[in-house]
Every structure is written in structure tokens, then in C-alpha cells.
Amino acid sequence: MRCMAVLLKAKGLSVATAGSLTDMALASVNHWVKRYQAEAVSGLYTKLGQGRKPLINGTDEESVLVAIKADRQNVQVPKAAWEASSGKAVSRLTLQRLF
Description:
Keywords: Signal. It comes from Bacteroides cellulosilyticus CL02T12C19. This protein is mainly α. The protein has 2 domains: about 45 residues, no CATH class; about 40 residues, no CATH class. Helix content is about 60%, strand content about 0%. The longest helix is centred in the N-terminal third of the chain and has 14 residues. It is elongated, with a radius of gyration of 22 Å. The two termini are about 35 Å apart.
């Protein structure tokens, strides 16, 4: 959609028209046009570090898997133990994604 908004704007369409055709807010269209003008095509990519950081990193993942393998029938017990030792809270679904 970012590319489309920039292309529509380059064809001479108004920001409002480009925004309505791409379902983007006017401010978003302007933002991506300015980023394209400053950085060319590479400016349209999502920059690294955007979004939520993972709760469980590489070293945490190993310790969580060891704890879960020790008691596979009841994930709540190793989950509670890991949360207490790490100070982080995770959902059961987060742990399930590790398998």
C-alpha cells in the first residue's frame, strides 16, 4: 500500500484521493511520500526494530523448554516457576509457540 500511495501521488492525484484508494490516512500518505523522497525505495521498507520485542529471547527459550520438558502434563507449574525466576509474565499461547 505504501508503494501504491507514492505512485498515485506521483501520478498527480491528491493526498486525499491517494489515501482513500489505499485506505490510508492523509498523514500516512504524506509520511510515506516524504520517506520515499528522502530514501528512495528503501524508505518504503519497515525499519528494523519496529513492533513489539519478544518476551522470550534465545537464552530464555532454552530454560523454558527444559522446564516444560520436565513436566509436560502440567505446563502451568513450569510456567509459574519460570515467570517467578525471570520476572516476566507470558501467556500459555506464547509457550505453545515454542514447541
